[in-house]
Amino acid sequence: MQHLDVRQSGNGVLITSSPAEIDGVAACWPLRLRNDDDGQGLNEVAAAFAAGRGHVFGVTEGPSYRTVLAFLPDHPEEGVGTLARVRTPEDPEGDVVFERSAERPMGLWAEAGENLRRIVPLLSPDAPPADEEDCQLCPGCYRPVYESSTSHTLIGAGPMPVIGLCRLCAEGSTLRSLRQADVPVDPQQRAVLETVAAALV
pTM of the prediction? Predict the structure, then answer.
């Protein structure tokens, strides 16, 4: 299961892709975008996501390379968009390296763009810097769960507690939706969801 979580974070936004690929390994990617130009840059990102249009932003220069954030629609296949942090060398014959990437259906990116559009007008230049929140993944569906999330702690039937469930898994909505859609679920995830469902009966 793939998720994009978009939320306000101080005077900026936090976009969390779970799972994503970081240096070739599946992991959670929390991307903080600061509001340094009265929302103009964030609005451009939101518009690109919503319209499914390619966009390059967040350029940083290194000694012999530069790193950019890029939104690539229909990459690597049609109907799939990729958000990536890409390192490009000064030498045009050098290798381009995808340091981090998150591939999602274009519909999820469009939804993320609309969420960004709603958040940007709420940002204030007087907002304090964002607190660094620890993120864990919901053991039932891999949604990112932050301390500020509507999340739960539930003691399961087994010897270990199930901690940090997202709201939808804690109330049983995730399992019901997957059953209705007849979607195959990883056995470990299914065990967590069924433990929760049993506890709710």
Answer: 0.79
Residue 93 sits at φ, ψ, to 5 deg, of: -95, 0
Structure tokens at 5: 């979580």
Q: How many Å is the Cα radius of gyration of the chain?
A: 19
Give residue 185's pLDDT.
Answer: 78
Tell me: pLDDT of 186 over 50: yes
Beta partners for residue 31, in sequence order: 15
- Tell whether the model's pLDDT for residue 180 goes beyond 60: yes
Q: What is the 8-class DSSP label of residue 64? A: S
Q: Which of 100, 49, 101 is nearest to 76 (CA)?
A: 101
The set of residues, in sequence order, having a beta carbon less than 8 Å from that of 104 and lying 6+ positions away, is 2, 4, 17, 80, 81, 82, 83
The residue with tokens 């967040």 is: 58
Please, where are the H alpha helices in 66-186?
106-119, 167-170, 173-181
Question: Cα dist. 73→5, 25, 51, 155 in Å?
Answer: 19, 22, 10, 42
